[in-house]
Design brief:
heterodimer, A: about 300 residues, mainly alpha, two-stranded antiparallel ribbon, B: about 400 residues, alpha/beta, six-stranded mixed β-sheet, four-stranded parallel β-sheet, 14 helices, 16 strands, globular, transmembrane (chain A)
């Protein structure tokens, strides 16, 4: 993947971080938190879809699961938010390992259906366990308390801490796809039979990536839930799994930075359109924009930019 | 594949080169006064609140002169998409960006969510559209008033009357969220008080369009009464199905909550129903006068009771702001608690201090058939006026833990 080396991605990364740093001064800070969380969520899907070729249609189970677990820990124990986030990530990792063990044996639409099915099981579990999850009212997190010992009740302070975690995780993801491990995954994506012939146990590689992506989605979800003081049913809903696929495709799969841009665009578009146009028209605008992007930018927005710069 | 060193370098430089400056908070008492109208603009409840509610609130602001305490009044419209979490996030944002009042909250889940935010932020919320009586019970708080009607009042009137006239065995059709659950609880209590019972109730997702399987099940249970404990498009669709499967030939159909907009959608289907409403546009001269102005702006449509309640609540709140000389919620609550008032919407109105239920007259109406109506949208005929003391939960039985 020559896309991620050289000077261009560094410039893209610099621009992204600069934008991220001035974001909460420009828009309502909670929306900035949403953008950062969704960006990381989209990266987790890109690791699977862009680098292994596995299209998960249930990625929201890790995002929502991580969010709910973080919310449950935070409301019941009032520990430092770091522990709540860690609990959310651990839950997502374990769930991903279990689901992955079943799902990676299959590919394509069958893989997508298994992930969707398990995600729906989790959705209805969350919906029914009213005492634990608050059912359809969602689970309210009161005051946020502290993160790494720092008070995070102020939205901006929380945003910068969450952003630091997001940036570190994105760096980890970049490192991962450039590692020998990432190389094997790419080889598998290009020609699975050959990778098997070379002696690689492809399912183990897929499972490893599925688990890591699940954990990253769980981290993103935990950050999102704490940022919004709420873990709601929409977090575990299949619509969210679909939305993150859209964000990733919009930005450009297999680019890491693409999904970040895609998520930021998708979420901010949704936010500003819903403030101006009303309800149904929001979907109309979003749909049109998405259709246009798919038609005009076959590689996604960032994918096209990287391609153009390479020529 | 070497990982490019310049990426982390660029990130580090960008991180270090920025300053964590926080702009000063906005001054609280200059600039415009914002009202956040949180409603369903596109879903199952859009017809009974939605765009009509926006029109009503804007009318109220204009009639007030567009200014209070020398500051301009602006209305922010928020579509809550019938999701509690969305309503909660948006309410937080609205209050944070200077909204002094959250209004409407049609859909109990969103109403309860916004009430929680109002309590956190010490800002005012007035619920007109949300119906759950939990708003003045388990979820009551200092900063939330419940204005138009509630599940207790509907059950106490419609439920009790039908049971008293012989409908002992009830079968419930209930939407599976906060409003449905509370509706079922309150109807069960009211029916039991009159010696009846619910033999079964089916819960279904909000916005269900195919009710056939539920209707067949209800038919086979042979109850005396089929209770449609839903609202808006759900009521319209379930009633349509009940008629298709001819349940009305076998049993009484009780409509728990019906709006003028529902009858507009399906006049033939609702003709002959007896329901309870908090207001009717043709109840008297004052109501009619306002409804005429509303119709001019809304292409001849007549307002529902929610839309009228939105106008009334906006006006009452603006009067309170003017009288108290501030938008501070604590001062407004102090001013409103126990205050009695009358306007075209609320007759014998009172802001009850005990649990923040706003009480006023309620009406039992019959829905007329097409051949009986004297003018377009004139669907209702008032058969009984219920005084506030009998319409709503008595103060002595309030379940609100008043912690303020």
């Amino acid at each position: 993947m020559t896309m991620l080396s050289g000077r261009t991605p560094a410039i893209v990364a610099g621009v992204l971080v600069l934008v991220a740093l001035i974001l909460p001064q420009a828009i309502y800070p909670v929306v900035a938190i949403d953008l950062a969380a969704f960006a990381l969520f989209a990266v987790s899907l890109d690791l699977l879809f862009g680098f292994v070729g596995l299209l998960s249609f249930g990625q929201a189970m890790f995002w929502g699961g991580g969010g709910y677990i973080a919310a449950i820990v935070l409301t019941r124990t009032h520990v430092d938010a770091a522990f709540a986030i860690l609990a959310g990530v651990l839950y997502a990792l374990i769930l991903a390992a279990i689901v992955g063990a079943i799902a990676v044996r299959r590919a394509g639409i069958y893989f997508a259906m298994i992930t969707l099915g398990v995600a729906q099981i989790q959705y209805f579990t969350v919906f029914q366990l009213t005492d634990v999850t608050g059912g359809e009212n969602g689970l309210n997190i009161g005051p946020r308390g502290t993160l790494f010992g720092l008070p995070i009740q102020d939205d901006r302070v929380y945003y910068y801490l969450a952003l630091a975690l997001v940036v570190l995780t994105v760096l980890f993801a970049l490192r991962l796809v450039q590692s020998p491990f990432g190389g094997v995954l790419r080889a598998m994506r290009e020609n699975e039979q050959r990778a098997i012939a070379l002696g690689y146990r492809v399912n183990r590689y897929k499972l490893a990536m599925f688990t890591i992506a699940g954990g990253i989605a769980g981290l993103a979800g935990a950050l999102y839930a704490i940022g919004n003081h709420l873990a709601g049913l929409d977090m575990v809903d299949w619509h969210t799994s679909g939305a993150v696929v859209m964000m990733t495709v919009l930005g450009g799969i297999g680019t890491i930075f693409g999904p970040i841009v895609g998520a930021a665009l998708f979420e901010s578009l949704d936010y500003f359109v819903s403030k101006t146009a009303i309800g149904e028209e929001t979907n109309l605008v979003m749909g049109s924009v998405f259709a246009l992007c798919v038609l005009l930018f076959r590689r996604g927005i960032v994918g096209e930019i990287l391609q153009a710069l390479r020529r | 594949m070497r990982f490019s060193r310049s990426v982390p370098a660029a990130l580090a430089v960008a991180l270090l080169s920025s300053s964590f400056s926080v702009p000063p908070a906005r001054a609280a008492d200059s600039g415009p006064i914002k009202i956040a109208l949180i409603t369903d603009m596109s879903g199952v409840y859009a017809a009974l609140a939605g765009p009509g509610a926006v029109e009503a609130v804007k009318m109220a602001v204009d009639d007030f002169g567009g200014k209070v305490l020398g500051r301009q009044i602006i209305v922010d419209v928020v579509d809550h998409r019938n999701q509690g979490p969305v309503a909660q996030a948006k309410a937080r944002e609205e209050y944070d960006s200077g909204a002094e009042l959250a209004l409407d909250m049609t859909n109990s889940a969103t109403a309860i969510a916004v009430a929680g935010v109002a309590k956190d932020k010490h800002k005012l919320a007035i619920v007109t559209g949300g119906a759950s009586s939990a708003l003045t019970g388990a979820n009551c708080n200092k900063y939330t008033y419940h204005y138009a009607y509630d599940t207790y009042a509907l059950a106490n009137s419609t439920g009790a009357n039908i049971t008293a006239s012989g409908g002992k065995k009830w079968y419930g059709i209930v939407p599976d969220y906060a409003f449905g659950a509370q509706m079922l609880t309150d109807f069960t209590d009211a029916v039991q008080r009159k010696g009846g019972e619910f033999v079964h109730s089916d819960k279904m997702p909000l916005g269900t369009t195919d009710f056939s399987s539920y209707m067949i099940a209800a038919k086979n249970a042979h109850p005396d009464v089929l209770g449609l404990l839903n609202a808006g498009a759900d009521t319209v669709n379930s009633m349509k199905a009940a008629k298709q499967f001819q349940l009305d030939k076998q049993m009484k159909i009780a409509v728990g909550l019906l709006f003028l907009s529902d009858v507009d959608a399906l006049p033939d289907v609702f003709a002959g129903s007896r329901i309870t409403t908090s207001w009717y546009w043709n109840e008297d001269a004052a109501a009619r006068k306002w409804a005429d102005r509303y119709a001019k702006a809304m292409h001849g449509l007549r307002p529902t009771d929610i839309q009228a309640a939105d106008y009334s609540a906006t006006t009452q709140w603006l009067n309170a702001v003017k009288a108290a000389g501030t938008t501070d919620a604590d001062a407004i609550v102090k001013y409103l608690d126990g205050r009695q008032f009358n306007d075209f919407y609320a007759h014998a109105g009172e802001w009850r201090a005990r649990d923040h239920r706003v009480t006023h007259e309620m009406y039992v109406v019959d829905v007329l058939s097409k051949d009986k109506i004297k003018e377009p949208h004139g669907w209702f005929k008032i058969v009984q006026t219920i005084p506030p003391s009998r319409a709503f939960r008595p103060e002595s039985q309030s379940t609100c833990k008043k912690d303020w």
